[in-house]
Write a structure and sequence with these properties.
mainly alpha, Rna Polymerase Sigma Factor, Chain: A, Arc Repressor Mutant, subunit A, 2 domains, 9 helices, 0% strand
Length: 179
Protein backbone atom coordinates (compact mmCIF):
# COMPACT_ATOMS: atom_id res chain seq x y z
CA UNK A 1 0.00 0.00 0.00
CA UNK A 2 1.20 3.48 -0.77
CA UNK A 3 0.80 6.47 1.56
CA UNK A 4 -2.50 7.60 0.05
CA UNK A 5 -3.99 4.11 0.30
CA UNK A 6 -2.87 3.82 3.92
CA UNK A 7 -4.52 7.17 4.75
CA UNK A 8 -7.73 6.18 2.95
CA UNK A 9 -7.84 2.87 4.84
CA UNK A 10 -7.23 4.69 8.12
CA UNK A 11 -10.19 6.92 7.34
CA UNK A 12 -12.27 3.72 7.16
CA UNK A 13 -11.02 2.78 10.66
CA UNK A 14 -8.88 -0.07 9.31
CA UNK A 15 -6.77 -1.05 12.36
CA UNK A 16 -4.06 -2.64 10.21
CA UNK A 17 -3.62 0.57 8.20
CA UNK A 18 -3.57 2.62 11.41
CA UNK A 19 -0.81 0.40 12.76
CA UNK A 20 1.18 0.76 9.52
CA UNK A 21 0.78 4.55 9.61
CA UNK A 22 1.91 4.69 13.22
CA UNK A 23 4.88 2.37 12.69
CA UNK A 24 5.94 4.35 9.62
CA UNK A 25 5.96 7.79 11.23
CA UNK A 26 6.30 7.25 14.99
CA UNK A 27 10.11 6.77 15.06
CA UNK A 28 10.82 10.08 13.29
CA UNK A 29 8.20 11.89 15.33
CA UNK A 30 9.56 10.43 18.54
CA UNK A 31 12.88 12.09 17.74
CA UNK A 32 11.01 15.40 17.46
CA UNK A 33 9.32 14.75 20.81
CA UNK A 34 12.68 14.01 22.42
CA UNK A 35 14.12 17.29 21.14
CA UNK A 36 11.33 19.18 22.87
CA UNK A 37 10.97 17.20 26.08
CA UNK A 38 14.38 15.79 26.87
CA UNK A 39 12.75 13.06 29.00
CA UNK A 40 11.64 9.74 27.58
CA UNK A 41 8.39 9.43 29.56
CA UNK A 42 7.41 12.97 28.63
CA UNK A 43 8.29 12.30 24.98
CA UNK A 44 6.17 9.13 25.10
CA UNK A 45 3.21 11.16 26.38
CA UNK A 46 3.64 13.82 23.71
CA UNK A 47 3.91 11.22 20.96
CA UNK A 48 0.81 9.38 22.14
CA UNK A 49 -1.20 12.59 22.42
CA UNK A 50 0.02 13.73 18.99
CA UNK A 51 -0.99 10.51 17.26
CA UNK A 52 -4.42 10.65 18.86
CA UNK A 53 -4.72 14.06 17.18
CA UNK A 54 -3.32 12.71 13.90
CA UNK A 55 -6.07 10.10 13.72
CA UNK A 56 -8.72 12.55 14.94
CA UNK A 57 -7.82 15.19 12.33
CA UNK A 58 -6.91 12.80 9.52
CA UNK A 59 -10.14 13.66 7.64
CA UNK A 60 -8.85 17.24 7.33
CA UNK A 61 -5.70 16.21 5.44
CA UNK A 62 -6.21 17.25 1.81
CA UNK A 63 -3.31 15.41 0.15
CA UNK A 64 -1.65 18.74 -0.56
CA UNK A 65 1.94 18.92 0.56
CA UNK A 66 3.87 16.44 2.62
CA UNK A 67 1.92 14.10 4.88
CA UNK A 68 4.99 13.74 7.08
CA UNK A 69 5.16 17.53 7.36
CA UNK A 70 1.48 17.60 8.33
CA UNK A 71 2.11 15.03 11.08
CA UNK A 72 5.25 16.89 12.21
CA UNK A 73 3.26 20.11 12.65
CA UNK A 74 0.77 18.26 14.86
CA UNK A 75 3.63 16.77 16.90
CA UNK A 76 5.34 20.14 17.35
CA UNK A 77 2.08 21.84 18.34
CA UNK A 78 1.34 19.02 20.79
CA UNK A 79 4.81 19.43 22.30
CA UNK A 80 4.23 23.18 22.59
CA UNK A 81 0.87 22.62 24.29
CA UNK A 82 2.50 20.17 26.68
CA UNK A 83 5.28 22.60 27.52
CA UNK A 84 2.85 25.49 28.03
CA UNK A 85 0.94 23.36 30.55
CA UNK A 86 3.90 22.09 32.55
CA UNK A 87 6.82 24.50 32.21
CA UNK A 88 7.45 27.66 34.16
CA UNK A 89 7.16 30.91 32.16
CA UNK A 90 10.32 32.21 30.53
CA UNK A 91 12.08 35.22 31.89
CA UNK A 92 11.53 38.42 29.93
CA UNK A 93 14.65 39.81 28.28
CA UNK A 94 14.79 43.39 27.12
CA UNK A 95 18.50 43.93 26.54
CA UNK A 96 20.29 43.77 23.19
CA UNK A 97 21.17 40.25 22.19
CA UNK A 98 23.79 38.94 19.86
CA UNK A 99 23.17 36.31 17.21
CA UNK A 100 26.84 35.51 16.70
CA UNK A 101 28.66 32.44 17.93
CA UNK A 102 31.55 33.13 20.24
CA UNK A 103 33.59 30.18 18.97
CA UNK A 104 33.78 28.47 15.63
CA UNK A 105 32.03 25.24 16.57
CA UNK A 106 32.11 23.59 13.13
CA UNK A 107 35.25 21.61 13.96
CA UNK A 108 33.79 20.29 17.21
CA UNK A 109 30.35 19.60 15.72
CA UNK A 110 31.83 17.65 12.81
CA UNK A 111 33.29 15.22 15.36
CA UNK A 112 29.91 14.59 17.01
CA UNK A 113 27.20 12.18 16.00
CA UNK A 114 23.66 13.49 15.57
CA UNK A 115 22.69 11.68 18.78
CA UNK A 116 25.48 13.42 20.70
CA UNK A 117 24.43 16.81 19.33
CA UNK A 118 20.77 16.18 20.22
CA UNK A 119 21.89 15.10 23.72
CA UNK A 120 23.65 18.46 24.14
CA UNK A 121 20.51 20.29 23.04
CA UNK A 122 18.44 18.24 25.48
CA UNK A 123 20.64 19.47 28.32
CA UNK A 124 19.44 23.04 27.72
CA UNK A 125 16.85 24.41 30.15
CA UNK A 126 13.33 23.84 28.80
CA UNK A 127 12.50 27.37 27.67
CA UNK A 128 15.80 27.84 25.88
CA UNK A 129 15.57 24.36 24.33
CA UNK A 130 12.03 25.07 23.13
CA UNK A 131 12.97 28.30 21.38
CA UNK A 132 16.18 26.79 19.98
CA UNK A 133 14.20 23.89 18.47
CA UNK A 134 11.48 26.13 17.04
CA UNK A 135 13.99 28.51 15.47
CA UNK A 136 16.69 26.10 14.26
CA UNK A 137 14.82 22.88 13.46
CA UNK A 138 11.30 24.07 12.66
CA UNK A 139 12.32 27.31 10.94
CA UNK A 140 9.95 29.65 12.77
CA UNK A 141 10.88 33.34 13.04
CA UNK A 142 11.25 35.00 16.43
CA UNK A 143 8.01 36.88 15.73
CA UNK A 144 6.15 33.60 15.09
CA UNK A 145 7.70 32.02 18.20
CA UNK A 146 6.70 35.02 20.31
CA UNK A 147 3.11 34.78 19.07
CA UNK A 148 2.96 31.01 19.68
CA UNK A 149 4.31 31.25 23.20
CA UNK A 150 2.80 34.56 24.26
CA UNK A 151 6.18 36.21 24.86
CA UNK A 152 7.94 39.22 23.37
CA UNK A 153 10.14 38.97 20.29
CA UNK A 154 13.07 40.17 22.41
CA UNK A 155 12.47 37.35 24.88
CA UNK A 156 12.52 34.84 22.05
CA UNK A 157 15.75 36.32 20.68
CA UNK A 158 17.27 36.51 24.14
CA UNK A 159 16.41 32.92 25.02
CA UNK A 160 17.78 31.78 21.66
CA UNK A 161 20.98 33.74 22.20
CA UNK A 162 21.41 32.26 25.68
CA UNK A 163 20.74 28.76 24.32
CA UNK A 164 23.45 29.24 21.67
CA UNK A 165 25.88 30.54 24.27
CA UNK A 166 25.21 27.52 26.51
CA UNK A 167 25.74 25.16 23.56
CA UNK A 168 28.95 27.00 22.67
CA UNK A 169 30.23 26.52 26.20
CA UNK A 170 29.38 22.81 26.05
CA UNK A 171 31.14 22.51 22.68
CA UNK A 172 34.15 24.41 23.99
CA UNK A 173 34.35 21.99 26.92
CA UNK A 174 34.27 19.07 24.48
CA UNK A 175 36.98 20.72 22.36
CA UNK A 176 39.27 21.28 25.36
CA UNK A 177 38.76 17.67 26.49
CA UNK A 178 39.73 16.44 23.02
CA UNK A 179 42.88 18.60 22.97
Amino acid sequence: MNEKQIIEQCLKNDRTAQKVLYQTYAPKMYAVCMRYSGKRLEADDILQEAFIKVFKYLPTFRFQGSFEGWIRKIVVNTALDHIKRYVEPMEEIDDNVSDTFIIDADEVISGLTMQELIALIQELPEGKRLIFNLYVFEGYSHKEIAEMLGISVMTSKGQFSKAKKMLQEKLLNIKTKVL
